[in-house]
Amino acid sequence: MKGRGFRIYAIAYLVFLYAPIVLLPIFAFNNSTIISFPLVGFTTKWFAALSDDTSLLLAVRHSLIVAVSVSILATTFGVFAARATTRYDFPAKGGIMGLIMLPLVLPDIIIAVALLGAFTNILGVSLNLFTVILGHTLIATPFTIAILNAAFQSLDRSLEEAAYDLGETKFSTFRLIILPLVAPGIISSMLIAFTISLDEYIIAAFLSGAGSATLPVYIFSQFRFPQRVPIIMALGTILVCLSVLLLTVAEYFRRRGIAKAGGKDTGGFL
Amino acid sequence: MTESQDPATRPARPIIELRDVEKYYGDYYALRKISTTIRQGEFFSLLGPSGCGKTTLLRCIAGFEELSGGALLIDGRDMNGVPANNRPTNMVFQSYAIFPHLTVEENVGFGLRRDPGTKAEKAARVAEALEMVGLKGYGKRAAHALSGGQRQRVALARALILKPKVLLLDEPLSALDKKMREQMQSELRKLQRQVGITFILVTHDQEEALIMSDRIAVMFDGEIAQLDSPERLYRRPVSRKVAEFIGIMNFLPATVVEVGAEQVALDVGGLGRLSITAEQCPGGARTGTASVGFRPETMTLLFEGDPEPTRARVAEGKVTEVVYYGDMTYYEVLLDGVEKPIQISMRNVVGRPVLQRGQRTRVAWDPAALVLFG
Amino acid sequence: MKQRKILGSEAGNGYLMLSPTAIYSIALMAAPLIAVLVFSFMTPGYLKIIWKFTLSNYTTVLGDPIYAALMERSLVMAAAVTAATVLSAFPIAYFISFHVSPERKSLWLFLITIPFWTSYLIRVFLWKVILGYNGVINSAFEAIGLIKQPMTFLLYNANSVVITLAHSYAPFAILPIFVALEKIDRSLLEAGQDLGESQIMTFLRVTLPLAMSGVVASVLIVFIPTVGDYVTPTLVGGSSGQMIANIIQLQYFKLGNYPMGSAVSITAMGIVTVLALIFLFLNRRFLRGQK
Q1: What is the DSSP letter of B259?
Q2: Complex ipTM, two decimals?
Q3: Contact indicator for C214, C89 with CB cutoff of 8 Å
Q4: Which of B241, B237, B272 is nearest to B255 (CA)?
Q5: Which of A152, B23, C8, C148 could potentially form a cystine with B31 if both were Cys, beta carbons 3.0 to 4.6 Å apart?
Q6: What class is the B248-374 domain?
Q7: Residues in chain A within 8 Å Cβ distance of B114
Q8: In CATH, what number does C56-287 get?
Q9: Is there a contact between A99 and C10 if contact means CB atoms under 8 Å apart?
Q10: Do A117 and C140 touch (CB under 8 A)?
Q11: From CA B30, how far away is CA B47, in angstroms rounded?
Q12: Per-residue confidence of chain C (291 residues) as pLDDT tens digits?
């Protein structure tokens, strides 16, 4: 009875959430530099223009280098932290974990300025892709921990003990039991870290320095030129499709991981 | 597998020796100087309430916990510094710990990875183990698709396939429903006789321990309160605490008048002067105030037409509560001259009425059934 | 042997396992944040810091009405975004928790999180397209004859910032409330009705108090990052929609005044932390006994 009202509201809410994403391909294929209704005609020229843009291709290359590195680094840190919190109990665990998870609530610009200050004024290092990787790893790690915690938590401790009891060493237990059971969580965590890094703007803007702009930094710079907007729409369409694909794969692995460990699905990411 | 042997005639070779075994966490003592011997081929139970240290002791034997003090020998070998993966023990976990990503076959054969045997030999051993626990043909199944009882059997097969000297079972039946549990109790008992391996079972269920064990160690607060056969434990508990933990026991205040070499003379409130044997004082006897205990089934209500007892004595009292169980009836009877009602259980037989509350009744009791507590 | 005891102990293993991640966080977050604090007391010089202690950065930040106005606007806008986001999110979380069958809950959560993970910049930019002078709403309304002149109050002001941020932070608000609602034992609601309360009163007396821990988490997780958001006010805020992050960016990037930018950052963080603590204190009875 009341469920109906809720359902209508929920669908309206989804329309609000998806409105920008749905508009994206509409204007990406619209044959006009002005982004407004009514539509003028169908074209694929904006997509074609993408491949001619050398600075765009360079930005994509940079972003891929950063995102791949971040996904590996953040997931490695996430594995350590998730294993530590789910398996061991020790004093100040909550405090240390609170610090590690802090970037979840800290505005990104604060992290950006703090790292910029530290890199340029204290360490005196020059800004490049590596500094961006360091910054992105910091903000992606809390997300990987959240995902990996769920994966490690559904792991019954007696599974390890059983393997150990049956003659395996600590290391081979990790390889034969723990790793296969959390592997889907690791894959899902890597994909999420990749997506976060690929999408992050403000830290990249502060830490990339000249000549190493990532994709979001490049996109932001293009917003100033109205004639470039349809090309950005085309690029956005590709990015959205890519993100949806990555997320679907991540979600598939996350669920499979929980099912594999015999656990119950309790919800999505975060 | 080894041929079956009767535990009574088997020589009592020790398989596990505990010498002043201690385990503490900070200043919390989980085990306090435990010394005892577990014999080769027996079904041994560690029974006690939660937190009594029974699981800790089992995990010390398995090697998951390091001893804080004392020594632990398995088959004559000191286990100090020997990790769990090198001990001749295997464990059936409370949660079964079936590897969810492996098949039944892969689970059972897990411990054979380091075995030098050929693939065919290993497969044969897995098949044999599966057949032994009644899971023939289940080998290719996914582990997470099994029922509780089947998981239990896989866990058993997986632990037994390595032919351990001692099999450790950590509350293995607690997750099963009543019917399944009863079936597994008798199967486990049979399996143990068949393979001849020493089983050590941790349980908080006194009935389970009584049914399955050759010997039971009752533990309280990190200590073994009594180690005995099920029958002696039930009939001659050494303390009121043990008596209360195992089954129901009525207690009456008593005064020990005289302690002789063979006989002990008592004065029991409401029942009068009587004499018991020293064997009825498992916890020892001293003159002065004490209490006596007796089980509900050792007293009988006398109905009209029953023959007058020859050896037992007779007391009179009033029925204050009646609980009908079908095969049994539990009465609470307030004996004349006794302050608190006592519980008496009677088997229901054809032609015998069930008494009502408030009715007067005669109760026959035998001094030989009493146990004295200091 | 004694040494092995410490290394092999539970706590020792835990610290060892956590240390790579913890060291990374300390080196790349805690230490730089402390550096920001130190910078904020130093004398500004263009693109470099003169290592001389001064309080002048703070006297400027706290005394200059421009900073105060910008700070106040950031807080008011973040509060508006938080209110809009959390209020609109609650029914969604309630719907998914109570009206969606268990096997479809994951799908709904997935649908809600997808937009969040797709290019933030482009999503914000699209709101500019939707709300702009020649934007989707105006051109559509003109086409069907609802309005004659394009509406100008949609873009480049506080409204557009609130709408855009509410859109960005939707999943952040929904998920904590959903988790809190999921934890509520359904028999408590039956007990509420069994004890004579109507459905609405049961909601107010049982469901809502039990869901408050999630609401509190949602408020904080939306409010704190929105105060410091940069992209949204820059792209859709116009001059009247600028927020504190814009001045931080300006000080660091355009003016090269690190000490001043640090002082603004520290002040903003301090105010937000105090507000968050007051908010937690006011809601402490909802958080008791929860983990």
Answers
A1: E
A2: 0.83
A3: no
A4: B272
A5: B23
A6: mainly beta
A7: 167
A8: 1.10.3720.10
A9: no
A10: no
A11: 15
A12: 333 444 457 788 888 889 999 999 999 999 999 999 998 898 887 777 788 888 888 888 888 888 888 888 889 989 999 999 999 999 999 998 888 888 888 888 888 888 877 788 888 888 888 887 777 788 778 878 777 777 777 778 788 888 888 888 888 889 889 988 888 887 887 787 777 777 788 888 888 888 888 899 899 888 988 888 888 888 888 777 788 888 888 888 788 888 888 999 999 889 988 998 998 888 887 776 544
